[in-house]
Structure to design on (70 residues):
């Protein structure tokens, strides 16, 4: 936003953003509770988050829940 939009605007400018879902897209979302175990494992590996291979789906979701992800 800063590089592509703000740098091209002329002053004074007002930017109005609401909370519409199409304005609020989360990239690389955390796995939801309905997601299969292998997708949770994939996400944890991608983010280099430690888990034990034998962890249950429920345990993996608890790990995901505890991660402070941007």
């Amino acid at each position: 936003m800063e590089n592509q939009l703000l740098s091209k605007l002329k002053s004074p400018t007002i930017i109005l953003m609401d909370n519409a879902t199409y304005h609020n897209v989360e990239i690389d979302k955390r796995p939801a509770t309905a997601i299969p175990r292998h997708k949770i494992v994939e996400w944890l590996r991608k983010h280099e988050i430690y888990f034990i291979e034998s962890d249950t789906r429920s345990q993996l979701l608890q790990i995901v829940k505890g991660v402070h992800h941007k």
In short: The mean pLDDT is 85. The chain is about 30% helix and 0% strand. The helical segments are 37-46, 57-66.
